[in-house]
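Structure ticket #2291
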Amino acid sequence: MSRSAVLRRSPFPALLLALALLSSVFAAPADARGGPPAHAAAAGNHEVWMLDQGTDLIHVHESRRLREVAAIDVSPAALRDAGFADAPTGPATVPHMIEFDSKDRYAFVASTGGAVTIVIDARRKQVVEVLATGAGSHMAAVTPDDSAVWVAAIGAQELVEIPLDLDARLPTFEIDRRLPVGELLEQTERDEGWEFPSYSPVCHQFSPDSEEAWVTLGPGWNQGGLFVLDLAEGEVTAAWDPSEVKANCGISVTEERAVANWSGKVAEGEDTEGEWYVFDRLGKDLLDTRDAEGFDAHGVRLTPDGSSYWMVNRLSSNAIVVDAETFEVTRRIDDVADTPDILDYSPDGSLVYITQRGPNPRSGAVHAASGDEPGVAVIDTATGERSAFIAPPTVEDTDGVVRNDVHGIGVRTTAPGEQGQARAEQTRRPKVVPARFEPADPGVHCSLPASA
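Resolution: structure written out below.
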């Protein structure tokens, strides 16, 4: 059992250090939230937002017939043409993960290749701001009280705060604090004699009172770790020995418990099964360590009714369902999807939407992340069987390489007649696009170069 360190408060250093880019041999960790939006239980219709990293398009589908209602172009050229000062200057944005505020008014898209977080008016399907949140901007998560968005920037090795006032007549979006993770963990390492193998934040979720964030580290299978951040003070209040708690993927936080997972060893010919950890959220005790029952444990998410967690294993293409009270595995679903990656639910919990990667992934180790059928598998949660599939239009480059690579997903509830407000054009990439540079080294992660 791992030993945790619950820390005394100390002043956060004022000096922000410029930190080097981190690379990895592992694929992108997963998104997880502690439950559905506050208004979701009463909602009927919803939208499925599918992020295609390979084409820089966000496809929005309505839930009844899975018809596409908008395709939002977030490519560097489109964002520059729209006049955003912080639009990416490189060849690709790579929209990686997405999350909405509690009333589904705005979408926040962390984009690893562009080093930005994109803010979208979710009703109108229009980009309203682009913020330079840092290299490898991997996950943008909204606090439960909608007071802020925090972005985990893997390459910059920082947690970045964007304060929110979404009830304002004209909400504005600006970066406030940048917290270097190396500085945050410095005192812990001195006090405990630990050495964290990475200072790169990967995924994070918040306590229901919005006072603390639980942050996994990585992204490599051998770079994991976990700590808790007091958001008001900007200080670490708990951490775990990284040799025992190796969390580098998904995280889910509730009133009483926190669940995080570790991919397992992901190395060609040397893969091992992943693990997941259960914590007492209030006491900060590690309660249990369990086997993920598959390889490359990745996405983990609590069902809308809070009864169970679904966890997917990308390399072995299976899922396990875990009882949220007993933490026993109640079901194992083989072949739940091809390279199952990130997941989200319909508001009533009857369906789970699971993303599937493309044959030429824009992030992650190729042998773990590559798939044959990029898109979203729609799974009946009662039976574990596929009921539908959502595929983006296939795009190839001039070398005949399929560019599609679906990674992030978000489900958004809608009001009656709301889709008529959407003003986004039905953007389409040509079926053939110019060849783009692709790093040949399978060790790349989130568009960052592999280390020497």
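Closing remark: The chain has three helices and 31 strands.
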